[in-house]
Amino acid sequence: MRHLAVLAALVALAAAGPRERRQTTEYERCQDGTKVCVPYYLCQDGKVITDGSGVIDIRTASGCSNYLDVCCADPHTTDPVTPDPGHVSRCGVRNYNGIDVRIQGFQGNETQVAEFPWMSAVLKKEVVSGEEINLYLCGGSLIHPSIVLTAAHCVNKHLSSDLRVRLGEWDTQNEYEPYKHQDRDVSAVVIHPRFNGSNLHNDYALLYLQTPAELSRNVDVICLDNNPTILAPHHNCL
Ligand SMILES: *[C@@H]1O[C@H](CO)[C@@H](O)[C@H](O)[C@H]1NC(C)=O
Ligand SMILES: *[C@@H]1O[C@H](CO)[C@@H](O)[C@H](O)[C@H]1NC(C)=O
C-alpha cells in the first residue's frame, strides 16, 4: 500500500508540472492574522526557523494548513538557497538528521530531507492530451554523476529516449525544496547481458544520463565496492 501511495504521489507530482514561487501577498494568513504561512526555509533571512535546536515538530500546530509551513512576519519571496558550490562529494553518506533541519513527529518512518542523497526516481515521459507528464516506474541509485543503477525489469521494455531520472526529490506532494531536485534525460540503457526476465536473475540495468548530475548536499553517489566479492550461489544478500 505504501508503495502505491508513493506511486500515486509521484504521478500526481509529475502531472502538476513546474510550480511558480508564490508572491508574499498570495501566502495564506496565519491564525493571528498578521503573519503568513511559508515553507520553513523561506523565513528569517533564509535561515531555518526552528525551536532553536534545529528541529521542526510537525505535531506542533503552526496554524497553517501545510504541515511544513511556519508563521512568518517577513518571508523571503525568492528562494534564498542556491546549490552549495563548495560541496565535496562523498559516497554513501546518509544524512540521518536531514540537512539544515530535523523534522519530528512523523508517523511512518518518513525520511528526512536528503537522508539518502543517491536515491533516484526512474520516470517515463509520456504525453497526455498534448502535455508531457512523468510516470513513476521505479527507484534507482546514483553510482556515478552520470550513471544510475536500477532493475532491468523496470526499464527493459522502454526506449532510453522515453526515460528520465529525478534526483534529490524529497516530498513529491510539495515543492518544499530548499535544495532543488534535478531531472536528467537518459541517453542509453544497458541491461545486464545475462538478465533473465522469467526468473529475474541478473536484474540490473545502468541508465546513462544525458548530462551529469550536479553533486550537492541532496544529490550524491552511493559507494561501489572496490574489492567486490563473488558470493556463493544462493547467498542471501539481505
Ligand atoms: C519504523 O522503522 C522501525 C525500524 O526499522 C520498525 O521497527 C517500525 O516498524 C517502523 N515503523 C513504521 C510505522 O513503519
Ligand atoms: C531463464 O529462466 C527460466 C526459468 O528459470 C529458465 O527456464 C530459462 O532457461 C532461463 N533462460 C536463460 C537464457 O538462462
From TrEMBL:
One of its GO terms (molecular function) is serine-type endopeptidase activity. Residues 103-238 form the Peptidase S1 domain. InterPro entries: Peptidase_S1_PA (IPR009003), Peptidase_S1_PA_chymotrypsin (IPR043504), Peptidase_S1A (IPR001314), PPAF-2-like_Clip (IPR041515), Trypsin_dom (IPR001254), TRYPSIN_HIS (IPR018114). It holds the Pfam family CLIP_1. Keywords: Disulfide bond, Glycoprotein, Signal. Residues 1-16 form the signal peptide. GO terms for biological process: proteolysis. Belongs to the peptidase S1 family. CLIP subfamily. This is Prophenoloxidase activating factor.
